[in-house]
Write a structure and sequence with these properties.
Layout: E1 2-7, H1 13-25, E2 29-34, H2 36-45, H3 50-56, E3 59-61, E4 80-85, H4 87-95, H5 101-111, E5 116-120, H6 127-138, E6 142-143, H7 157-171
Parallel strand pairs: 1-2, 1-4, 2-3, 4-5, 5-6
Helix pairs in contact: 1-7, 4-6
Length: about 190
């Protein structure tokens, strides 16, 4: 089992870092590609270094290396997640503008009909962003906004992050225990 993980330059980089930790802990291979701005966000928003984040992945691919296997639809994988997904990255994917490896890998994921999950964190949204999301949904992508639920009564930020990471893993049918699922019985 192998999942492509893209980190772009939106706020919320901790979601992507946590995804890499969970995949490592579950012994699921991860192919990491991140934009230059994602590397800057690591330093701005977390105590991690860029090298520490890269070290969480099974394999790291330079964002401008088009000789990477991620640039080919023939590279076997479960699909791809981009979290966080900046509006620039979302627009590039929606337009098929694959000028870096993250965008090319997403393009390959769509053309091969594999699951592509985009986790935007931007708010509020304008009409252009919503149209891009609609375009991508029509092309087969899943838009999974970083909007955690509260029915599991999170006690801290980590549980909110785990909720989004867990919802993302659900799309790929990867088992996890990152949050309590909705139950039929009333909450006490």
């Amino acid at each position: 089992m192998r999942l492509i993980v893209g980190l772009s330059g939106a706020s919320g980089i901790i979601y992507g870092i946590r995804m890499l930790e969970v995949l490592r802990d579950q012994k699921i291979e991860s192919d990491l590609v991140m934009t230059d701005m994602a590397g800057k966000m690591v330093g701005l928003e977390t105590p991690f270094s860029e090298d520490e984040v890269i070290g969480l992945a099974t394999r790291y691919h330079d964002c401008f290396d088009f000789t990477s296997p991620l640039a080919s639809g023939g590279y076997r994988n479960l699909g791809m997640v981009v979290l966080p997904c900046s509006m620039k990255t979302l627009a590039g994917i929606a337009c098929g503008f694959a000028d870096n490896l993250l965008l090319r890998a997403a393009d390959c994921t769509l053309k091969e009909r594999r699951p592509l999950v985009l986790v935007p964190r931007e708010t509020p949204l304008n009409a252009i962003q919503i149209r891009n999301m609609l375009t991508l949904t029509g092309a087969g992508a899943t838009i999974l906004p970083a909007a955690p639920g509260f029915y599991h009564r999170p006690k801290d930020i980590g549980e909110l992050i785990d909720h989004i990471v867990g919802k993302t893993l659900d799309v790929f049918h990867i088992e996890h225990h990152l949050y309590s699922r909705w139950k039929d019985e009333p909450l006490s």
